[in-house]
Design brief:
By secondary structure, this protein is α/β, with parallel strands linked by helices. Helix content is 34%, strand content 20%. It has 2 domains: 128 residues, CBS-domain, CATH 3.10.580; 142 residues, Roll (CBS-domain), CATH 3.10.580.10. A 3-stranded mixed β-sheet has the order 1-2-3. It has a 3-stranded mixed β-sheet with strand order 4-5-6. InterPro entries: CBS_dom, CBS_dom_sf, CBS_domain-containing.
Length: 279
Amino acid sequence: MKVEDVMTTTVIVMPDTQQVSYARNLMLKHGISHIVVVDSERKPVGIVTEKDITRKLRVAGPTWRRRPIDKISIKRVMSKDIITVPANADIREAVDIMLRNNISSLPVVEDGKLVGIITKTDLLRVYNEKCKGRWKVSDLMTKDVITVTENHTIAHVTSLMEENKIGRIIVIKDGEPIGIITSENISFAQLEDPETGVPLEKIYFIGRASKEKKKVRLVSMLTAGDIMTEDLIKLEENADAVEAANIMLKEKISGIPIVDEKNQLKGIITKTDIIKGIQ
């Protein structure tokens, strides 16, 4: 099967003259996690993902990182080293490129022109259709799960995500999963000033308390329990991996906690884990 058989041909793009807030609004509007950035001639010059927004807009570092997101150029956040794939490549080549480079999407080009994009979600559909009965969840899942408690700070959560190059973390209590935090939870957090009730939509990310701006301190005091998704979908180890793929596609999620009969956390299965089964 070729990339052109499964790629998405309608590609959401944004101009490189826009700000991070524009990218965020596009992601929310279209329910996507990555956007191709183009120049004035509509040639791809970068790609921005939820992970980029979460990872790069941290308080520690240059002053620009402490600005509101409608004041930060997308050029500062996007990945400029674009990795592409030709339309006639085998999908297993696309899987290999994604896994080797720890990326979730590949712009598809022909003669230097953008003709589509292939994502882990596209590959998940392939697995869902072609690989029933091939692998159990236990064969593909990640067993060494990075976890936090609901009292850990968001600064700690983002640090763990960055250090381990992951897009989600399970929140546990007494060994049981009680929530999950994703890059989207952090990137698109809806915050309010507790004194005024005014939404702090202009996100200032995220680190130790800063003396510079009150809003930065407020964000920094958030805990995992404040923004985690509590309505968890869980699976057991003996489930078919196709069941996990189907749930991810239906519920538009990218990771599922795996538990035993006592609801103790045993692992997590993600889109990345599942597409490994295509190789």
